[in-house]
Amino acid sequence: MSTARLSPRQPASSRPRSGMRAAVLGSPVAHSLSPVLHRAAYAALGLAWSYSSVECDEKGLPALLDSLDESWAGLSLTMPLKRAVLPHVDEVTPLALDVGGANTVVLRDGRRYGDNTDVHGIVTALREEDLGGDGRPDAVILGGGATACSALAALRELGQTDIPVVVRELSRGALVCAAATRLGVAVRFHTFDKLGDALAGARLVVSTLPQGAADPYAGAIARSGADVFDVVYTSWPTRLARAARFGGARSVGGHAMLLHQAVRQVELMTGRSDVPVEDMRRAVGTEIDRRAA
Which pLDDT score, from 0 to 100, does residue 2 have? Predict the structure, then answer.
């Protein structure tokens, strides 16, 4: 496996313009909104492409990858495959290696290229809503998993290189610590019983916790006055987001990250730069509302 920098405008000379296939892989994957986003993009772009959901775990990943033919344009990867896929690609971007996982595999001229568009999704979501204000965001990350690693890279891109990270137990910080070393940023770990120390001076809280896990801390975060980016996109707004808004701060959910990481995936898989962001935004918003009804 070697490193490479993928460009959305690197066309595959042998790729047909119609009948291409893509899919999201993971376990569980039935809940994924990726099909809604990608299909909306294909329709708006006039591409006769298909996009499906495929249940797949780490054990089944190698055989599935080997079964793909030239009709496949790419794959979106969710848990638990983002780290597991790295040994099975021919080339990978430095960002995906630094973060420690790829959520995207582009299939081009018989080769597999791994990339991470989650970081782009977070950066674009934060910039779009101007969360944290102008300049360095002075953010705190809640959680120590794979999404927290992507958040580290996003904050680095936004100019923050000294990042407080709050975890339930200090022993759970190993993944983030390794990613921070690769990314060249410093992290300061806190446990949730010391959340107040981590929040001192923060203008933004990035919660990478599962749905409901941030609820006990919503009041303390709201009192800090920090804006909130909560990666949860179901049952929106979350208690954390509502508390932040009640305290006069701003909040944005994981649907924005989900949208913009998918936009970059469509660019990479299709080679198109005119990806219909607003069509995708409307489609995923409608589906989220439908599921909440």
Answer: 64
Contact 287, 258 (CB under 8 A): no
Residue burial 94-118, b: 16+ Cβ < 10 Å; e: rest: ebbbbbbbbbbbbbbeeebbbbbbb
Give the end-to-end CA distance of the chain in Å, rounded to a whole number: 46
Average pLDDT score over residue span 85-106:
98
In the prediction, which pLDDT does 14 show? 43
* Residues assigned a catalytic role: 82
User: What would the pLDDT profile of 28-46 be if each residue is shown by its tens digit?
Assistant: 999 999 999 999 999 999 9
The model's pTM is 0.93
Domain range for residue 167?
132-249
Percentage of residues of the chain with pLDDT beyond 70: 93
Residue type (1 letter), 218: A
Laid out side by side, the sheet with 162-167 consists of 186-191, 162-167, 139-142, 204-207, 227-230, 251-253
Let me know whether 152 and 71 are in one domain.
no
Same domain? For 144 and 95 the reply is no
Verify that 221 and 284 share a domain, yes or no: no
- Separation of alpha carbons 85 and 140, rounded Å: 29
Give the CATH number for residue 229: 3.40.50.720
Q: Establish whether the linkage from the previous residue to 16 is cis, with ω within 30° of 0.
A: no
